[in-house]
Amino acid sequence: MAISLCFSPLTATTPKHYSKIPLYKPINPIITLTTPKILNPNFKKVKCVPENSQNFSVIQEKPRWANWLSIAESLYPVYITVGGVVACLKPSTFSWFVKCSPTSYSLTLWFIMLAMGLTLEIKELTNLLLQRPLSILFGCAAQYTIMPALGMILSKILGLPPSISVGLILLACCPGGTASNVVTLIAQGDVPLSIVMTACTTIGAVVLTPFLTTILAGTYVPVDAVKLSISTLQVVVAPILLGSYMQHKFPKAVKKIAPIAPLLAVLATSLVSASIFSENVGRLRSSVVGMAFSSDLPLISRAQNVLASEFGLVAVSVALLHFAGFFVGYLSAALAGFSEPQRRAVSIEVGMQNSALGVVLATSHFSSPAVALPAATSAIIMNIMGSCLGFFWRCINPTQPKSSLEVTDKS
């Protein structure tokens, strides 16, 4: 999970005697620069403004260290995969972190959300909410209807054990993950829409995640909606608001910390996921080894046995959940008449969950360790699937007419 990105516009004064508005005001009136030189072709221009606004984006070269930080943040799937491999081969590597759970998990998620708050500009968020209410409302509604329904349906179809069913439903009821913002950027989707959807669904998780989990998973085990709400408020909303307040109150100090905060959040998320995986890998590995090598069955039959094991059920159910989320999210946005960049943003936002929140809620409020398995496994599978989808879409340029660059709501 990478942290949300914020984009602050720079403005350029528009000369009144020009029929066309240039991005740069020429120093010499004899020479007019109609096309500014882009020093870095990989620099991403992201800023949307209303049609009648006089504020236009100005292309600006990013410092080299900022580019290196962006690259390091984008390697989140690599960190997650390496952590999962280490957890499988040597689970004791993360024993120091596991011994302090669930407190260590909660504090780490608190830090992740604080980093998100440090990079989240409330003013920009409010402006986008006012300018694009329908598209944002649609995206948030899709997040909290498509995924919870898919989680419930898959648990029934696959006949999952109660603890895994609860974990899968809890994961499906979590808000969008902040890794979706980076994947949307890679996929050439609507990044501002993705950022606002992540922020809104995260804040809404205080009520919606416990409410939906209680309704859908309450038939398997007792679920305390009030305690879930309090935990979500403590580890999600409170640090985000604190980070935003710090950004407003101490802008100079936050400006020095903010560039490295997303990378630290990425590493912290990887640590939580790998630790949860290492906590359960012994039981999972023994079941897989037993299924695969303890009989004289043919190779195909052994593979079927592995898939039927606890680890196989978790991996298959999580993969199907995210795949269906990507597909149904894109289809719903297409049926609603959204542009291609917006469809990609909705698809990725719906399909990628805040797995770290799922891990924290599962370990804090459910006695069975298996409840946390879907969220921990999701951290690996989801990011690999999301990254592959993002790079696939990157090879297909979305059709973006001029009007699609506006932030005015078109739905």
TrEMBL record:
Its main location: membrane. It comes from the Eukaryota. It is found in: Membrane; Plastid, Chloroplast envelope. One of its GO terms (cellular component) is chloroplast envelope. The chain crosses the membrane at residues 104-122, 134-158, 164-186, 193-216, 228-245, 311-333, 372-393. It is a multi-pass membrane protein. Gene3D superfamilies: 1.20.1530.20. InterPro entries: BilAc:Na_symport/Acr3 (IPR002657), Bilac:Na_transpt (IPR004710), Na+/solute_symporter_sf (IPR038770). Keywords: Membrane, Transmembrane, Transmembrane helix. PANTHER family: SODIUM-BILE ACID COTRANSPORTER, SODIUM_METABOLITE COTRANSPORTER BASS2, CHLOROPLASTIC-RELATED. Belongs to the bile acid:sodium symporter (BASS) (TC 2.A.28) family. This is Sodium/metabolite cotransporter BASS2, chloroplastic.
